[in-house]
Amino acid sequence: MPRQPAPDLSPRVSEEVRQTTCYMCACRCGINVHLKGGKVAYIEGNRDHPINKGVLCAKGSAGIMQHLSPARLRKPLKRVGPRGSGDFVEISWDEALATATAWLKPLRETAPEKLAFFTGRDQSQSFTGWWAQSYGTPNYAAHGGFCSVNMAAAGIYTMGGAFWEFGQPDWDRTKLFMIFGVAEDHDSNPIKMGLGKLKARGARVIAVNPVRTGYNAVADDWLAVTPGTDGLLILALIHELFRLGKIDLDYLIRYTNAPYLVNAEEGAEKGLFLRDATGTPLVVDRRTGQPACWNADGVQPDPAADCNGHKTVLRLMAERYLDPAHAPEAVADRCGIPAARIRAVAAELARVAFEEEIVLNQPWTDFRGQRHETMVGRPVSFHAMRGISAHSNGFQTCRALHVLQILLGSVETPGGYRFKPPYPKAVETHPKPHAGVTPGQPLDGPHLGYPLGPEHLLVNADNSAKRIDKAFTWDNPMSAHGMMHMVIANAHAGDPYKIDTLFLYMANMAWNSTMNTSEVMQMLTDTDESGTYVIPRIIYSDSYSSEMVAFADLVLPDTTYLERHDCISILDRPIGEPDSMNDAIRWPVVEPDRDVRGFQSVLLDLGVRLGLPGMVNDDGTARYRDYADYMVRHERRPGIGPLAGWRGNGDGIGRGEPNPEQLQRYIDNGGFFTSHIPEGAQFFKPWNQGYQDWAVSRGLFDKPAPYLFSLYSEPLRRFQLAAEGHGERQPPERLRARIKQTLDPLPVWYEPFEDTMVSPEAFPLHALTQRPAAMYHSWGTQNAWLRQIHGMNPLYVPRKVWEQHAFSEGDWAWLTSAHGRIKVPVARMDALNDNTVWTWNAIGKRRGAWALSPDAPEAEKGFLLNHLISELLPDRGDGHRWSNSDPVTGQAAWFDLRVRIEKAPPGPPSEPAHPAQASPVGQGPATLARHS
Fold this sequence. Notes:
Layout: E1 16-21, E2 30-36, E3 39-45, H1 58-61, H2 63-67, E4 77-79, E5 88-90, H3 93-110, E6 115-119, H4 125-135, E7 140-141, H5 144-147, H6 149-159, E8 167-169, E9 176-180, H7 188-201, E10 204-208, H8 214-217, E11 221-223, H9 230-244, H10 249-255, E12 261-262, E13 282-285, E14 290-293, E15 306-307, E16 310-312, H11 313-321, H12 328-335, H13 339-355, E17 358-360, E18 364-365, E19 371-372, E20 375-377, E21 380-384, H14 386-389, H15 394-407, E22 417-419, H16 487-493, E23 501-505, H17 517-525, E24 537-542, E25 554-557, E26 566-568, E27 580-586, H18 599-610, H19 627-633, H20 662-668, E28 672-676, H21 689-697, H22 714-723, H23 733-742, H24 753-757, E29 765-770, H25 784-787, E30 795-797, H26 799-804, E31 812-816, E32 821-828, E33 836-840, H27 857-860, E34 898-904
Parallel strand pairs: 6-7, 6-23, 9-10, 9-21, 10-11, 23-24, 24-25, 29-33, 30-32
Antiparallel strand pairs: 1-2, 2-3, 4-5, 4-25, 8-22, 12-16, 13-14, 15-16, 17-20, 18-19, 26-27, 27-28, 29-34, 31-32, 31-34
Helix pairs in contact: 3-18, 4-18, 6-15, 9-12, 9-13, 9-15, 12-13, 22-23
């Protein structure tokens, strides 16, 4: 009888495993990279990593395809054809760096502001910002102004942190989880793991989103809110909590400015806090009925006091939000949510918060020196992202959501929202923005920050902007992340001034990382009367042949994330957990097989050639060998550097001298570092003396910095006062009414600007985009595995609209906005707000980009809504056009888009069908080679 073969049921998938950090989205999960024959063969999650604990999504696993992509740039490129054509010649690094130096050095010595340096999702913004500051240009920012600065800034101004990177729900204890405007692209693995815990315990999930996909699809309740009305809904929930008396008064008195008295006297102090002679805010002491300093020994604040007409913050809130205008019945039609459902959600929030409170038998001492024997928590938590942020009312909507969770007492308590170190940090501890330019010298301070009043604006005496993007002006005074989406339009218009060189890194601003895409491409190629490009020089760095590459004059090719050093630093943004401080690195698990260099090391090289302070020694030689050397030896202040782990002799945590063996210690530990917070310091972080002392020991603060949450925001009121005619700095007349309306110190809702400027009869539908779970970024386009999941994107149409226009499967449609028209494939989706259409973002591609074939489905059947969105709102009749942005932070308001739809002739291609760019990397193969 013949013997059966004995198959190897557990073949070795690799000969070596190297551990690093994923870069397929912004989660920064730990990964095990399996090598076979010295090449990447397989990627899996690192079970020991604090972020993902071994879980890895489709994007992370597909990183091997990103690393092997045929779209990878291979060598520095110099443009030889017209801009946008994609015609380049390969050059050496010596020539590329000499060219860049020849362009940048004269600018630094004469007019540094004529360099505009902006980056995308590079995750090294403390470094790139430091480089730009050393160069001396005021024109630096990253992707946040286009993405979700409303969420971050609203959180910082309200409570010293925000959702996602700043913190997360207490997944182990939360009993009710409510999410607003969350897609699947950010923080995907931790949220999926957290939702798994909630589902296993039977906790309830409520989703608020016009679109029911992903996390919203697994929620127990779905509220199909009308886009742009989330703030109206949240304020109705607040109305109900006040009406029911379901707010945590003890929490509000102890940890917020709810009992502060607000000055009611007419004049320059009206609406600011009532203060004593030392500037300390006053409350009414219940023991005496008289004003007293909020932090005086033994003071017992009265949260509802009215002292000679000076009312407390909480009293002002009750008066505002109990107004019938905020009742569920008053907002239901605009929100698209029945009043009964709004009341039911509010009642459930209150019930879980106050009837299912959590008590931990964990003693702790607060910053006042008072010892508490237990930690009491409200097991209600929230999460929100771009869906409520990318509106012109997004800042106040995000503020409202933060205030909602504070009223419930569910921030930094067991079961609620918890900060991740280095947060929480009061807004007052953050830097202020700077734009002081001196030729040949560094900028006078950090570019970005958090203004506390008009004195921190970056404007000249005539109110003209000091920055090319017009961030930190009266138009957008609190634009903490800059306004990257306005750079090209402003530079093209020469408003507020012309620039010489646009320097971009990993920012696909000729396609999906911009609004008004077709016209932006025209701006990049426009010439003046002499035939010179309006934007004279463009330097671009990327790893792949994106649409933006074709518009560069000089291309500096970056590595893939598996071929370079990266620093996931606490100086940038936290990656950790609420119970620990964490940072991580990337390192070259394989060496590049092309003539490419890590962008951060290239910047250091340029810094040496330009003689930038901090990058050269006294004799002009390089201070740092490369970015890896910088990661170890750079110090922002004595003993504090980019990496927190294994400092000094290897025992230092957060503080200590540079350790030459530091990177190896990270590599030996799986690419990350963790320092756990003591149990008694894990909650109530802003007020917990144990946490404050631990944070000082770890270098997060130099001294304890407790603070109170700001239900009422004085910085906003200071801008209102200026608009009312007070103070030395005054806004232009055209903006006074808008500032008074939108920069309210208490959360307020107003209609999205496009709704007020575009006819709802002519454009009856809202149009949205969201990123799919399998594709965080336009990078996914060249990924052979991920393309099979999202090779095209239809416009999803609700049943009502589908039937109204008699659409059928396979139909195409014209989608028209006040700005333009595109042709798109359509598909029916019933789990969708009745007056909303939507699509996946960044799927559609321009022919010739990403090494795709000319007839790739991404070009034939993929499309961008960006073509329909202008970076400027329509003229209001006074000759002035506002930027299509939030008036507080400058966040791009691309979710305000209104459209109409009608049938189009069947069949591709989608329109606008731009002609193909030449591909400097050729076209990818039809099939991929496999490892043996």
